[in-house]
Amino acid sequence: MASKSFKGSRSSLSISSDAAESRKPPISPTVTFGRRTSSGRYVSYSRDDLDSELGSTDFMNYTVHIPPTPDNQPMDPSISQKVEEQYVSNSLFTGGFNSVTRAHLMDKVIESEANHPQMAGAKGSSCAVPGCDAKVMSDERGADILPCECDFKICRDCYIDAVKSGGGICPGCKEPYKNTDLDETAVDNNPRPLPLPPPVTMSKMERRLSIMKSTKSALMRSQTGDFDHNRWLFETRGTYGYGNAIWPKDGNIGNGNDDEVAEPTELMSKPWRPLTRKLKIPAAILSPYRLLIFVRIVVLGLFLAWRVKHPNNDAIWLWGMSVVCELWFAFSWLLDQLPKLCPINRATDRNVLKDKFETPTLNNPTGKSDLPGIDIFVSTADPEKEPPLVTANTILSILAADYPVEKLACYVSDDGGALLTFEAMAEAASFANTWVPFCRKHDIEPRNPESYFNLKRDPYKNKVKPDFVKDRRRVKREYDEFKVRINSLPDSIRRRSDAFHAREEIKAMKLQRQNREEEPVEAVKIPKATWMADGTHWPGTWLNPSAEHSRGDHAGIIQVMLKPPSDEPLHGTAEDSLIDLTDIDIRLPLLVYVSREKRPGYDHNKKAGAMNALVRASAIMSNGPFILNLDCDHYIYNSQAMREGMCFMMDRGGDRLCYVQFPQRFEGIDPSDRYANNNTVFFDVNMRALDGLMGPVYVGTGCLFRRVALYGFDPPRSKEHHSGCCSCCFFGRKKHSSMAHNSEENRALRMGDSDDEEMNLSLLPKRFGNSTFLIDSIPVAEFQGRPLADHPAVKNGRPPGALTIPRDLLDASTVAEAISVISCWYEDKTEWGQRVGWIYGSVTEDVVTGYRMHNRGWKSVYCVTKRDAFRGTAPINLTDRLHQVLRWATGSVEIFFSRNNALLASPRMKFLQRIAYLNVGIYPFTSIFLIVYCFLPALSLFSGQFIVQTLNVTFLTYLLIITVTLCLLAVLEIKWSGIELEEWWRNEQFWLIGGTSAHLAAVLQGLLKVIAGIEISFTLTSKSAGDDVDDEFADLYIVKWTSLMIPPITIMMVNLIAIAVGFSRTIYSVIPQWSRLLGGVFFSFWVLAHLYPFAKGLMGRRGRTPTIVFVWSGLVAITISLLWVAINPPSNTNQIGGSFQFP
């Protein structure tokens, strides 16, 4: 039963990062081949008898667990022959800390039939030659190619062996093949490109082993020392140089004469066209805007100086509080306003992108896409608060995006490990077989089916194909059925689990009766498991949690829902689907379900930990040089969005961009946007302004990352931009003359260190972990993410046509390695979360992650597209909105008290950018002064005093100028940003609502964490709608009590009572002080006007608040005011009223 083993060419699953352990040979990853019986026991099988050629060849120790066959008989030998091919798309990979990595071959993933050749669960044929585990030759549609009339199933390698060395005899019928010249495209479909092909003299099995060893190893470091792919890629100037593209003169490639280089005539003859351009704000708007900022700063300074010099001696306590608050408000306004001095707009040219990357050229004769790959991350954690239908629609919009199919990969992180999310994903992959080709055929926008079928506009506008109406009706019916299946999944899973559980109990009872024939039978207690569609236990979280199957305790899971597409387009036919798909590409991008391992006692770091797990798993499986992360409720609204972002990344200087941030746009917001959910002032004013500095902050979703920037490397040419920074070269290069001439080569992948020593390769596991798969993928991702070197001015470029080669196929060891890097222990003693990937330690990990990149010298850009790139949902309920703001503000307080404070930023960060990040950490503290200031008008009315001695002309003039300049600045911001005045006012209102509620609580929680070490826990923001299906905005009117409402309610009540008291006091005074009353009443109304949306939210649905409530409120206010006058009457009062005096 012992399998043969060999020293794997892959990385080890676990190697100690200690110096002593690092010298030990790596341990090969083990995956188990076997069959799981109905009792849950795994039966292993040896591969010794599969092929005699294995006797003299080292082989990896693989074990794969296969589900029980229907008849529960010993495994048919043919099953082991098709394991490797069905491994990726038909196997559920599980594993983790101190456990065997298992691949559970699934008969079916969902109840319905999988009908797409890429879909998980799609049946495949195996080679019938004994000892062969390869797939049968097939066309791109999955149909078998059978070269003999006897229909003997044979794979490509076996067929070539039979033709060349077997005399052309069919192994099945022993008759000669009648046609040994099969179509090359048929025989060679799904080729495996090898950078170093094995010798021709090798046997079939040796070639297969060579393929297994070298798959995914292109351009990776060789462990045997025979060939160093990194040196070949990054240190050879045979065909191109490291950094600027260098071509040999006269086309003499590899002639050893590296000094004679020239530019290709094709590039010199064509004018270079940029992919993006800056659109400056008109000087007629920007110049007055900057002038007004300067004027307001001067006026504020003079006003505060006047306030300090003219105290109110009658109420020094009132004056002191007001001056302190005004000083802080001025400081806070400066922090917010100064980064807005340099706003810009940007535009892209997708036509140029197409010409450069998808048009036939000398370097790319076929016109195949030369665009880099993109890995898209979708994160979800709780199917109850994040409905699976919402997540499924987001996935469908990704699969239908207008980007080269073979360059896309979608990874869904299910941090809850729920079978409901798993099967919803599988249903989405199945429906994508119809939806994605339909979108491509009719150019559908948006490509989220729920949003598309609910469009208010005419769906037939600009549609010219005669079969559109018929196709749309059929797809709509399919989508309705798809929604019903998704909605019924919870009940379906529950009923299935109950049925299997009852069967297991009956089996246990029978077994107990057999063992105890005469003894009384006791009730058998069996853990109630959650069962998958193929009749096996779900390895994730069960509906009834138990040990190793709960939300915080389950194995790591990876399931390839849609295997990687073929390299060439696969056109449909009229019979392929419900609609005619002739000449329509029916391929689908790679889709992978990932649920990282969770165990008790480990800090899993919430969303940031889940995103880092996806970064590592995707680096192993697809290694796209760019990463787009989306929340589960943010879908692609503009199918061209990724091309828009790629224009920035592929433009000249794009290699210094760490990410492209898209604005967040929302659906389902009430027309009045009562609680400023659209955040238009932030996304259209602040973010555009930051784009004129080092770039916008990262806001958590809708962001296109450069992978190597997430890895913690410095940007290229970092020392040219700042010579005083200590950096280290990634490759630990030797300082010799042959490399000294190319400074760019020495700066490609650098990571800043506290010392000035070069990075040693032995330190890399301490940074990135023990997976050499992961480490070897880093330079490949860096190279593929470079801009195109199509002009001498493009620095750090790559040669045209370098990314037109097919992607390597997935195999068992690749997915097994991906399982290992999502285990709960992998990040121990590494820099993941501290310096690499998403940064831990804050509930707003997004802002911290972006800050770290800017701190290393990277830049970012803000991409505002004509058609919204992404759209999502936002909580319109007041309580949910306050909790959302609380989470953001708490993260900002954590940032302020951490080493991520902008005061500690490196010299690489620009001054105004540093101020912007400082404002991010300071703004919650404004709530302390804001609450005091909101009570000042009431205190003024209660005491009969004011913040100044008298309302003289100087005070009113300053107040007028400050107010007018603020209004003019708002008007100019509206002009250059394109927002509306109502949106600006809503933002001002919610600034006060949030500042007096959530921000104050955030400051208190942050101080508790810093001082007492009390951790902060937050619940997910619910993405589900209200219960009232007839009202789209039913959730807006639901009043859910929270303690965050106490401060604003108190402020409103106190100010209302104070107004009544002030009027009563003035009326009953002998000498009424109308000036003080008007001052206090004006500021009280200013407070109440800002809190109006909050008060409206407390009233519930419009029209449902009884009139008697308002009547009683007025009576109570009048009664309290009269009682105040009765208890504390004005002195020397002989009459009511007095003479009216206006100041």
From TrEMBL:
TM region(s), chain numbering: 283-304, 316-335, 916-939, 951-972, 1049-1071, 1077-1095, 1107-1127
Residue ranges of the region described as Disordered: 1-35
Lipid bilayer topology: Multi-pass membrane protein
Short name of one Pfam family: Cellulose_synt
Taxonomic path: Eukaryota, Viridiplantae, Streptophyta, Embryophyta, Tracheophyta
Gene3D superfamilies hit by this protein: Spore Coat Polysaccharide Biosynthesis Protein SpsA, Chain A (3.90.550.10), Zinc/RING finger domain, C3HC4 (zinc finger) (3.30.40.10)
The species this protein was found in: Hibiscus sabdariffa (roselle)
Keywords of the record: Cell wall biogenesis/degradation, Glycosyltransferase, Membrane, Transferase, Transmembrane, Transmembrane helix
Protein name according to UniProt: Cellulose synthase-like protein D3
Subcellular location: Endomembrane system
Extent of Low complexity compositional bias: 1-19
